[in-house]
Design brief:
Residues 4-118 form the Response regulatory domain. By secondary structure, this protein is an alpha/beta fold. The protein has four domains: 4-120, Response regulator (Rossmann fold, 3-Layer(aba) Sandwich), CATH 3.40.50.2300; 142-304, Rossmann fold, CATH 3.40.50.300; 308-387, Helicase, Ruva Protein, domain 3, CATH 1.10.8.60; 409-466, Arc Repressor Mutant, subunit A (Orthogonal Bundle). The protein is built from 21 helices and 16 strands. It has helices at residues 12-24, 35-44, 65-71, 86-94, 107-120, 142-154, 171-181, 199-207, 224-227, 243-255, 281-286, 292-298, 315-328, 338-345, 352-366, 374-380, 385-388, 392-407, 414-433, 438-445, 449-458, and strands at 4-8, 28-32, 49-53, 55-56, 59-60, 77-81, 99-102, 161-164, 189-193, 232-236, 257-259, 266-268, 272-277, 301-304, 335-336, 371-372. Strand 6 (77-81), helix 4 (86-94) and strand 7 form a beta-alpha-beta unit. The radius of gyration is 26 Å and the shape is globular. The N and C termini lie far apart (58 Å). The structure holds adenosine-5'-triphosphate (ATP). Adenosine-5'-triphosphate is lined by residues 137-139, 165, 167-173, 236, 278, 318, 321, 353-354, 357.
Length: 470
């Protein structure tokens, strides 16, 4: 269904031009010329986005935004103004307007802003499972605006998307937004995390298996591909996919058909693929750990999420958003002072938005006052949580705790995920020390050489890359 736009503009020629441009982009536009008409329309309809002029015959379109909010508390509003004064710009940014466009403006930029506004608004309506269906992607930083723009480009098609970015930057949330905003919203959204599934089970997890396909396959199993039929399949941590599964995935993407493990028959599937990774796949291609042809199949539309430290200007809005979420989950309702936000902005956030979210929830729970200030932040979130535990044992405990908190491994995956997270740097350390000599590394670790070789392959560690004489 087309997104509906309300345009409040008393200059007929401008109204006509904007209406036409938006209609060409597939929006459903209702135009009116006065505040009175605007309020009447808002009382009877729901609009996805409103565009409004400032000076209208019966009042000020900006000053009356609070009236609009009574009808549409969260609808993005784009302000258009011929009064290019700093005052109007400031008033627009003080109000909760989504965007401000001084006239004359570039029509393409305006239609793009409308598409972004549509993408950024909470998509609460139309879902029956209540709360967590809203997908507000918070962020007005240039970096996030770029992300919104990319999302709007894939909304109306089924192009394959590859989302990159460090852990916790919001890759899954973006994948869900793409799903929610697109035409496949009526179909399923199935997420599979390649890193959380033991490698020998991955193919049967993705493609299913027939009864008796391997020891333990006591009954037939439908894989995630088939479950996602008609919808979207989110392949998370795609860089952790073992070679054979990569080949099978490539074949499925090329043919649009899958074969269950141990099955003969090819089954057609209609699935949109959104993949994500926190690794840099390019060097993995060079090392032969990721198939180049698969990479090109997946990387049709790349969306990169920058780390949180590169978009500090989003931290204030994110903190407010998470405080709201925390209150919604029954934690005390709190606000953060601007000093508190500044302290939070100065932090490194290696776990990105996920770490910030956990920190805000902790603050909501533990802060002394309703308003969280700088000192509560410093008390509740000591900056050097690991360094404080100087002795090695506590260092491990604290690191594990922090790791669990930031990575939030899914139910039933903790043991394998933690072990992999621990083994990887350990093996890398051993290979570093032995310059990639697996025999010596195995001896140093005190494990069998074949065990080491197997685990290195499973963890995608290339021993030759540690050989400095290469
Ligand atoms: N821009 C954002 N606005 C609001 N919430 C966000 C945003 N980005 C991330 N989050 C929240 O932060 C948490 C982590 O996000 P998400 O799981 O999407 O990260 P990810 O990049 O997929 O992480 P990983 O690579 O570890 O799987 C989630 O709770 C998500 O809702």
């Amino acid at each position: 269904m087309a997104h509906s736009i309300l345009l409040v503009e008393d200059d007929k020629s401008i109204a006509t031009v904007i209406t036409q441009a938006l209609r060409e982009d597939g929006f459903d536009v209702t135009a009116c010329e006065s505040l009175a008409r605007r309020d009447a329309l808002l009382a009877g309809h729901t609009f996805d986005v409103m565009l409004t002029d400032v000076i209208l015959s019966d009042g000020d379109g900006l000053a009356s935004i609070s009236t609009v909010r009574e009808h549409a508390p969260r609808m993005p509003i784009i302000v258009l103004s011929a009064q290019n004064t700093l005052d109007t710009a400031v008033r627009a940014s003080d109000s909760d307007a989504f965007e401000y466009f001084p006239k004359p403006f570039d029509l393409d930029e305006l239609t793009q802003a409308v598409a972004q506004a549509v993408a950024s608004r909470p998509v609460a309506e139309g879902s029956d499972d209540g709360e967590e269906s809203a997908l507000p992607l918070i962020g007005r930083s240039p970096a996030m605006q770029g992300v919104f723009r990319m999302i709007t480009r894939v909304m109306r098609n089924d192009l394959t998307v590859l989302i990159t970015g460090e852990s916790g930057t919001g890759k899954e949330l973006v994948a869900e937004a793409i799903y929610q905003l697109g035409a496949r919203k009526t179909g399923p959204f199935i997420a599979v995390n390649m890193a959380a599934i033991p490698h020998d089970l991955l193919e049967s997890e993705l493609f299913g298996h027939e009864r008796g396909a391997f020891t333990g396959a006591v009954s037939q199993q439908i894989g995630k591909f088939e479950q996602a039929n008609g919808g979207t399949l989110f392949l998370d941590e795609i860089g952790d996919m073992p070679a054979e599964a990569q080949t099978r995935l490539l074949r499925a993407l090329q043919s649009g058909r899958i074969r269950r493990v141990g099955g003969r028959q090819e089954i057609g599937v209609d699935v949109r693929i959104v993949a994500a990774t926190n690794r840099d796949l390019v060097p993995m291609i060079a090392d032969g750990r990721f198939r180049e042809d698969l990479y090109y199949r997946l990387n049709v539309v790349p969306i990169h999420l920058p780390p949180l430290r590169e978009r500090q200007e989003d931290i204030g809005a994110l903190v407010r958003h998470f405080l709201g979420q925390a209150a919604g989950e029954g934690l005390p309702a709190r606000q953060a002072s601007s000093d508190a936000i500044d302290v939070l902005k100065a932090r490194e956030w290696r776990g990105n938005v996920r770490e910030l979210r956990n920190a805000v929830f902790r603050l909501a729970l533990m802060a002394r006052d309703d308003v969280i200030d700088e000192s509560s932040v410093n008390d509740v979130l000591p900056a050097t949580r690991i360094a404080e535990h100087a002795d090695a044992k506590h260092g491990f405990d604290a690191a594990l705790e922090l790791w669990i908190e930031t990575m939030q491994p899914g139910e039933g995956t903790l043991y394998h995920a933690a072990l992999a997270a621990f083994e990887k740097p350990l093996f890398e350390h051993a290979l570093e020390r032995t310059e990639g000599n697996q025999l010596r590394a195995a001896r140093m670790l005190g494990i069998n050489r074949n065990t080491l070789r197997k685990r290195l392959a499973e963890l995608d560690i290339a021993p030759e890359s540690f050989n400095r004489r290469r």
